[in-house]
Amino acid sequence: MNVLPLLIVLLTFAIGGCSKPLGEVATASKVAGEAGQRVAQAAEESGDLALAEQLYAQASAAAPSDAAVQLRYADILMRRGRINEARDLLSKRLQTVSDPLELHDGLGSVYVLTGDPIHAVTEFDLVLAAKPNDIRAVVNKGIALDLLGRHTDAQALYRQALTLSPGDQVVINDLALSMLLAGRPQEAEQVAAPLRGQTDVLPRIRTGLGIVLAANGDVAGAGSAAGTQATQAQLVQLAKAAASSAH
Q1: Three-state SS at 155
Q2: CA-based torsion, 131, 5, 171, 86: positive or negative
Q3: CB-based burial of residue 237 (10 Å sphere; 0-12 exposed, 13-18 middle, 19+ buried)?
Q4: Three-state secondary structure call for residue 133
Q5: Rounded Cα gap, residues 192 and 172, in angstroms
Q6: What's the CATH fold of domain 1-24+41-166?
Q7: pLDDT of residue 6 exceeding 60
Q8: Domain spans of the chain, in order of start
Q9: pLDDT tens-digit series, residues 17-41
């Protein structure tokens, strides 16, 4: 069984940040002027990603040195399923932006989503060499290492991230799933325990919690945790798949 797609789905991957989408690194950036920015953001919020893409494409061409604009455009491309275009955009703009580290982080995220964790680690290492406590790069490198089966190294990075952002539900989820993938379901459940009492848990993280609970035999609790995100049967199946990939 090829578990790479499963791992990518299980590990909560917020491109460019733990709890923020890629383009939120600099919300003050202007996108083809204030009016264009408002229209683009409104288009995103209303679900009109085609219009948002058009506006950010124009902004990307008009401001090739603005890293935030390039990241926002790449984010829209990825949300529309055009991951290769996002990768090509970020690779091209590395030569033009004033802060290439932001793009290296985004490019590493793209490599993770395309199943190329080795190149992803290289990109994240470039960021961490300059900013050792950049939480986005720390967490995203951890995910890349998990995809490579280097769970112990990944868990060290998640714990580093938790010292930078205590209680972050995304990092807790990733750490718990990493332990599950390493064949340590009981420890995974202990790590994920704080999520059970929270009411504002993100949908994918609820699914992750459900998988961890299912892996420990608490099928009813798994279903309650996941809610409408997955059935009990699906959670059990995912837990078995994670167990089969444990190493």
Answers
A1: helix
A2: positive
A3: middle
A4: coil
A5: 6
A6: 1.25.40
A7: no
A8: 1-24+41-166, 170-247
A9: 333 444 443 443 444 455 666 687 7
Neighbours of 219 (CB within 10 A): 16
Q: What is the pTM of this model?
A: 0.83
Answer whether 133's CB lies under 8 Å from 146's CB: no
The H-assigned helical ranges of the chain are: 4-10, 33-46, 49-62, 67-79, 83-93, 100-113, 117-130, 135-147, 151-164, 169-181, 185-196, 203-215, 219-226, 232-244
Residues 59-101 have pLDDT tens digits of 889 889 989 889 989 999 998 989 999 999 999 999 999 889 9
CA distances for 192 relative to 120, 169, 207, angstroms = 26, 9, 12
CB 143 within 8 A of CB 121: no
Give the dihedral of Cα atoms 128, 2, 88, 100; nearest 10 deg.
0
What one-letter code names the amino acid at 187? E
244 Cβ contact partners less than 8 Å away, ≥ 6 residues apart: 1, 3
Q: Which two tokens stand for residue 133?
A: 């406590």
